[in-house]
UniProtKB/TrEMBL annotation:
Keywords tagged on the record: Purine biosynthesis, Transferase
The keyword Transferase belongs to this UniProt entry's keyword annotation: yes
UniProt-annotated site: Raises pKa of active site His, residues: 145
Organism: Rhizobium alvei
PANTHER family listed in its UniProt record: PHOSPHORIBOSYLGLYCINAMIDE FORMYLTRANSFERASE
Active site: 109 (proton donor)
Gene: purN
Designated name of the protein: Phosphoribosylglycinamide formyltransferase
Residues at which N(1)-(5-phospho-beta-D-ribosyl)glycinamide binds: 12-14
Amino acid sequence: RKRGAILISGGGSNMVALLEAARDPSFPVEFVAVVSDKANAGGLAKAEALGVKATVFERRTYGSKADHEQAILDHLAAEGVEFLCLAGYMRLVSGSFIRPFEGRIINIHPSLLPLFPGLHTHQRAIDAGMKVSGCTVHHVTEGMDEGPVIAQAVVPVLTGDTAEALAARVLTAEHKLYRTAVTRLFGAGTATDDRQMLISLG
Ligand code: GAR
């Protein structure tokens, strides 16, 4: 199995979904490290509870973005990490961070990209009058929420939806989609993947 790490900034529910999926030895990735840029990220304790070492790298500890990223890269190299999942990591990564993981660094975003990149995606989807929204797993490039799409799941936008209600519905789909996308990336289980995508249509 590939040695993976997960980068988080917050509650880490997608991280938990990935760590739980990786308990199955047929999952193509074994997660050996979690990294957070926030010392108060709720996901840190959840990672430790699931037996994965979690380390904090706060941006303000370092003199520059380059130093911050290099410290994370050094840590990942020391852990022998070869594959990176961004899961609610709310920081734009630079080309020099991506380069050592080219093709092996992916992100999840709570919209049907290229629609609604960036923040406040759910409110923007509602305001645009969308009848569906969803989530996207994509390769990470230097642009924010850009990069080739690996997998997407669709959920309905319901009449009277608030951003919070839609976010919760999308987040449930994210948890399924992220493990499906990782499996797809490594070339297994396509038929099951496609069925999972339909299930997330509700
Ligand atoms: C998720 O909805 C994820 O897609 C989003 O932040 C949330 C993190 O939740 N990411 C982005 O908006 C990145 N542009 P989690 O910490 O519970 O996984």
